Amino acid sequence: MQIRSLDRDNLRAEYGVLTQRLLPWPQLDPPFEGAWAVLEPGASTTPHAHPEFEIFLAVSGTATISSDGRVSPFVAGDIAYLPPGETHQIVNVADQDFRMYSVWWDEQMAERFRSGLLR
């Protein structure tokens, strides 16, 4: 077993949120990638869309998530699915960090994984 912990001191900014990529692992070639994301109080991600499928798992805190003009509460225990091309944004509406885990994939990642399994 291997465990990677959130390293708050070495987060980097992506799409306006502080992140730590956790996948892929060197010895594992999964058909997806993932990252911890931390939004500080009052912070928001940059509205964006991309060609990958994406799932967000809210871990702690209180935020809103908007997707193509719809705004919904997004709190610990919630999960959101975003299809490719859908513009989305998360806003931390609380006075403490909002933490989530993001997983994304596309057809090329899945195909590379399937090809590796067939060898």
Provide the descriptors you would attach to this structure in a database record.
9% helix, mainly beta, single chain, 119 residues
Oligomeric state of the chains in view: single chain
Order of helices and strands: EEEEEEEEEH
Structural class: mainly beta
* Shape designation: globular
In the CATH scheme, the class would be: Mainly Beta
Number of DSSP helical runs: 1
The span between the termini is 25 Å
* CATH-derived architecture: Sandwich
Kindly provide the radius of gyration, computed on alpha-carbon positions and rounded to a whole number of angstroms: 15 Å
The percentage helix is under 10%
Largest sheet, spatial ordering of strands: 1-2-3-9-4-7
Give the total of beta strands.
9
For the largest beta-sheet, the strand count, sense and barrel status come to: 6 strands, antiparallel
**Percent strand:** over 45%
Low-confidence stretches: none
Round the mean pLDDT to the nearest integer and report it.
88
Task: Give me the CATH fold name.
Answer: Jelly Rolls
